[in-house]
Amino acid sequence: MDRVFLDHAATTPMRPEAVEAMLPLLGGSSNPSSLHAEGRAARAALDAAREAVAAVVGAAPREIVFTGGGSESDTLAILGAARATRSRGRHAITAAVEHHAVLHAVDLLEEDGWNVTRLPVDSGGRVDPAAVAAALTPQTALVSIALANNELGTVQPVAEIARLAHAAGALVHTDAVQAPGWLALDVDALGVDLLSLSAHKFSGPKGAGVLYVRRGTPVAPLIVGGGQEHGLRAGTENVAAIAALAAALVLAEAERAVQAPRVASLRDRLETAILASIPGSVVNAASAPRLPTIASLAFAETPGDALLIRLDLEGIAASAGSACAAGSAEPSHVIAAIGLDARFRAGVVRFSLGRETTSTEIDEVIRRLPAIVADVRIPVSV
C-alpha cells in the first residue's frame, strides 16, 4: 500500500487547482508595482487574489495584506499592533498553548518592556473567557488567542473573548492558520481586528500568507522599503504564490460543508478504534470542541520518538506532541499546559487528517498501530 500521510497540520500537499493558478505567473518578468502593460497584468492578478481572499473572510479587499506565511503574519499582527498602540499601555494577553510564532513574538514584547499575561488552559486546552476578563486592565493593548490549536485541535471561544477585549478597549488577534476549510472564517462573526492565515495549511504553496487587518486598526510595518501591501509589508509581492493561495482558499471554503463532517467521521473512527484496541491510550482534549482534522493520542509508557520512527518505517507519516531534548523526552508546551498524566507525556502522537485522507488509509492505521505500540512500549516493572 502507498504511504499514509497523516501530518496535514504541519503542511498539506498543493492541490492541482492551486498549481494551475500559479504556473502561468511563474515565468513572467512583471512587477505589480510597474505601470507598463506587464506590470498592470501582474497587478490585476494580485487584485483578483485579494478580492477572492477578502470574500472568504468577509472583509474588504483593502483589509487583506499578503505576507510570507503564517509566522510572519502573526509577528506583524503582534509586534506591529503593539508598536502602533504603545501609547495606550504595554500589556498583552495570550494563552500558554499558542503557536511559537505568537509566543516568541510576545517574548519580544517583554524584552521591549511590555507586561505579558500567558493564560492557563483547562485539560482540553481551552481558554476560559472569564480568565481573559480577569486579566484585562486599562493598559491592555492586545489580546492574541488562536482560533484552533495546532497540536490538539481545540477551538477557542474567540468571539466571546473578542467581545470582552473590545469592551476594555483592546485589539484582538487570532492565529487562524489551522482553520481554513474546517471552520467559518467570518471576521465580523469572530469579532477580531487581526487574523493570520498560511497558504500551505490549506493546500496552497509554502511561503505565502495573509494578515487580515480591520479598517482603522493601527499596525506599524516590520518590513520597510516600498509602499506595497498598503504600506504594511514592503517588497515586491510573490504574485504566483498569492494567486495559488487565493485559489486554494476559495476551494477549501467551498468544500467545507462536505469535507469537514467527512473528515470528522474518519477522525472519530480512528480514535474510537485506538481506544478499544490499545490499552493505556487516551485522546487528548477529547471533551473540547475540536477541529475535525486533529487526533492527539497519548500512550502510556511509550517513547514517542521510537513510535514515530516505527510508524514512518511502516509507511505512516505522523508527528509528535512532544519534543526530545538531550536524549530526554520532554512534553511540548501544549501538552505541559493541559496537565497530561506523567505516564502519557512522552508518548504523544498527533495524527492530522486532510481532504485527501481516505477511509482505507484510516483502516490501515487502525490495523497496524496496536502491534507498533506494543513493540515500542516500555514494560512496567512490578
From TrEMBL:
Enzyme class: transferase
The name this protein goes by in its record: cysteine desulfurase
Cofactors, names only: pyridoxal 5'-phosphate
Entry keyword annotation includes Iron: yes
Pfam families: Aminotran_5
UniProt-recorded Gene Ontology molecular function terms: cysteine desulfurase activity; iron-sulfur cluster binding; metal ion binding
Residue ranges annotated for the Aminotransferase class V domain, each copy included: 4-364
Keyword Iron-sulfur part of the UniProt annotation: yes
Domain of life from the UniProt record: Bacteria
Record's catalysed reaction(s): (sulfur carrier)-H + L-cysteine = (sulfur carrier)-SH + L-alanine
Keywords on record: Iron, Iron-sulfur, Metal-binding, Pyridoxal phosphate, Transferase
Enzyme Commission number(s) from the entry: 2.8.1.7
Similarity comment text for this entry: Belongs to the class-V pyridoxal-phosphate-dependent aminotransferase family. NifS/IscS subfamily.
Coiled-coil parts of chain: none
